[in-house]
Amino acid sequence: MFVCSCFGVTEEQVRSHAEAGACTPRQIASACKAGTDCGGCVRRIQALLGRGACPRRELIDQGAPALAELPEAA
Ligand code: FES
Asked: Is NADP found in the keyword set (predicted)?
């Protein structure tokens, strides 16, 4: 499903950028331009990021360095 119709960016693409470390709509925009045209998708991107798409966010909330190694997935 498309999150950003201006650039044809899908929810999956936003999730994979988030998993790669993009934790804010601005960082998502840097990765794939989503949100940089009409801006209509920024809230959808925020919602995706807020739903745990970014594994680093929890670590940041706990005060861990943002670029620290993530624990290995089992
Ligand atoms: S829908 Fe994403 S910038 Fe327009």
From this structure: no
